[in-house]
Amino acid sequence: MTREEKAVVIDELSQKFASTPYFYITNASGMSVDEVNQLRRLCFEKGVEYRVIKNTLIRKALETLSTDYSSFDASVLKGFSGVMFHPESGKVPAQLIKEFRKKSGKDKLKLKGASVDYSLFVGEDQLELLIALKSKQELLGEVIGLLQSPAKNVVSALQSGGNKLAGILKTLSEKEEQ
C-alpha cells in the first residue's frame, strides 16, 4: 500500500470514527474462513459494518479526532483488529458478539475495546456491561413513563371518584323522589 493510499484510508477512517459514535474493536484471529463468513453474514443482518484494518491506520485515524483515544494504544491496538460500526446503537455490536459466540460455540471473537458515545470501554470483561447499556431512546422512554405514571394515577382516581359521586347523587335523588 502506497503512502497516498494509506492517507486516503486514514482520512476515510477519521470521517467514519467522527460520524459514528458507536464502534467496537475486536480480535477475530484464529477463525476459519467459514467462521469469518458467518460473522460477516450476521453483521450484515444486524446492520453492523465490519472491517479488518491495520492497527497503525486505526491509531493514526483516531489521533486526528478531538476525543482522546490514547487508552486504546497499549492494549487494544495490538494483533489482529477488526472494527464494527453501528450508526444507531452501542448495544447492537455487543449483542452480535455474544450471539456469534453462541452460534459458533467458540470464543474466538474477542472484544478488545469499544467507544460508545465517546465513552471508552477496554477489555473483554466489558462485554456484559455493554450489552446491559440502555440506548438514549430506551432511557427517554423510561423517564417519560415515570413522568406519566403520577398523572395517570390522578386521572384514574378522578374518573373513579366521579363515578362514585355520580352514583351517590343518583341514589340520593331517587330517595328524594320516593
From TrEMBL:
Part of the ribosomal stalk of the 50S ribosomal subunit. The N-terminus interacts with L11 and the large rRNA to form the base of the stalk. The C-terminus forms an elongated spine to which L12 dimers bind in a sequential fashion forming a multimeric L10(L12)X complex. The keyword RNA-binding applies. SUPFAM superfamilies: Ribosomal protein L10-like. This is Large ribosomal subunit protein uL10. It comes from Arundinibacter roseus. Forms part of the ribosomal stalk, playing a central role in the interaction of the ribosome with GTP-bound translation factors. It comes from the Bacteria. PANTHER family: 39S RIBOSOMAL PROTEIN L10, MITOCHONDRIAL. Keywords: Ribonucleoprotein, Ribosomal protein, RNA-binding, rRNA-binding. GO terms for biological process: translation. One of its GO terms (cellular component) is large ribosomal subunit. The keyword Membrane does not apply. GO terms for molecular function: large ribosomal subunit rRNA binding; structural constituent of ribosome. The gene is rplJ. Belongs to the universal ribosomal protein uL10 family. Pfam families: Ribosomal_L10 (PF00466).
